[in-house]
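Extended Data, panel c. Modelled sequence:
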Amino acid sequence: MNHPPLANAELAVMELLWVQERRTARQIREALYPSASKAQHGTVQRLLQRLEDKGYVDRDRDLPVHLFSATVSREAYASGQLEDLAEKLTGGSVAPLITHLLAEKKISRKEINKLRKLLDDSKGRDSKRHDSKGGRK
């Protein structure tokens, strides 16, 4: 399921929750605004409420101090946003993105090997599926 894009401030909160699974609003406020006064508490509360409304954050209300945790992983969010971007810019094809990243040397050798393995695994699954339908290998 693709989630709506996050505003920068919402993404900053999610980054904190992706690093440390559960945090209080106070811990989030102190991490985002280390030198600010308690006046920022309302801002953090509004951000958390928006994230909860969008389905990104869960609030554990069982304790006297509520704990917040991410319900969407960084990888799931990034995947959804990349799919949306590919749909908008290239009709859903990710090939131009990968081609650009390779040409600009933005992909490490380790990442290239991982992509190669994914492609090889995908090819193996496709040929097995083709064989099970009575086709040739």
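The CA atoms of residues 24 and 64 lie 11 Å apart. This feature is highlighted in the accompanying rendering.
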